[in-house]
């Protein structure tokens, strides 16, 4: 029982330790700012005007001028508005604490932006290395046919939904389905009963041999006792998608008579891969441009942060960073002769296949991190329950560590995978332990009184459930480790956006959005 109480207390306290550390660090910085400014206010014990205070901040900067935008951003956050432009109002030493609070808040906003951009840049850099390897592989194995497209070229068509279809039945509705055909290949969706705005969300793959045929999509109304009624037609030239990027778009449906007005739209997601070499060349080119943009954004934020800190140069030496540029890690690994942080090719292929499987069963973007949190909570709970019968110190250790680390997720990718290895080892330890001791654990009546038997049997059942939960826990942890940089980027972006609504959303340009939509589903 003592062990259980200690574990519960450790878990509850551990989740707050990072926030406490940040608060302590910021309080130290606030005190140093106040200490630096206090002599100026003591020399002017009758108070100083805001203009005098600004001039004093200017004098503390190396170039003799404090960026006016930074001054305004800090003063605008103070509880009582101070008009720094007019500069006539006097402020007293009492404003120092308020000024330091506002300064740290603005600094935190820029630091969170900096972290978000660096995380995004690291993700794009890792993608660059990964796709460079796949580009080299494609150059080695790709063959083209007589029509100039690669052998094994395929067209992926996802029929998502339709809207405002023409009613065909007597009840002013219809039972629509879609038929997709190209190059003597045909597939059809399930029909949706009594719906003029059906949602199919079905994906089909077609082998493309010539690239000269059109993609035809027919929307029909299912009839039981007569021929199915025509509801609309869409014809697409697949050469319009030769850039090989995924396109998700609404298209107008048409009648068989081009002069007849029609109604209805259909949403199609389409991608044609006709040359992996060209595909990866284009991806690498786009990634190069995106990384350049990432570096530009990063430099702008770092410049703003430096300008903000200009009157207090000592703050740069007190900045505790915990997220490094992946290029720095690669340089260190290359210098030491170690392998870089890239995953093995086998793992990459497995991750891609897993995403495809999830996509086929309806998970467009599986919430892996959310599942990790839920499974970790179950892991901790079941571990505590098993301790009534089994002194499970190994699982107590790893479940507590996992709970401490996943929120906030502050580990490096390597440390996270080490934690995964620990959970993996504990899984096999539990199997061996239960096999060797199963006879003892199922004969509690020889060792315990009646009230204790039920508790022990409950704990043993929890131990078997724990094995099942831990299996899925390892699986999800592995997937999170594969997409670790993306998870970090997502978390840091949300933190920045949640910081009192002050952080702007760094939206990607259209090429970046299309690229991410492609690389995670290819």
Mind sketching the topology for me?
Layout: H1 2-14, H2 17-43, E1 48-49, H3 50-59, H4 68-75, E2 90-91, H5 95-141, E3 154-163, E4 176-182, E5 185-188, E6 199-207, E7 214-221, E8 229-237, E9 247-252, E10 265-273, H6 276-308, H7 326-336, H8 345-360, H9 368-386, H10 393-406, H11 413-441, H12 450-482, H13 484-498, H14 510-519
Antiparallel strand pairs: 1-2, 3-6, 3-10, 4-5, 4-7, 7-8, 9-10
pLDDT averaged residue by residue: 75
Structural class: alpha+beta
How would you sum up the global shape? Answer: extended
Instruction: Report the uncertain regions.
Output: 1-8, 330-342, 495-514
Largest sheet: 4 strands, antiparallel
Number of helices: 14
In what order do the strands lie side by side in the largest sheet?
6-3-10-9
Report how far the terminal alpha carbons are from each other.
51 Å
Determine Rg (CA atoms, Å): 31 Å
Give helix % range.
Answer: 40-55%
Count of DSSP strands: 10
Quote the beta fraction.
Answer: 5-15%
Order of helices and strands: HHEHHEHEEEEEEEEHHHHHHHHH
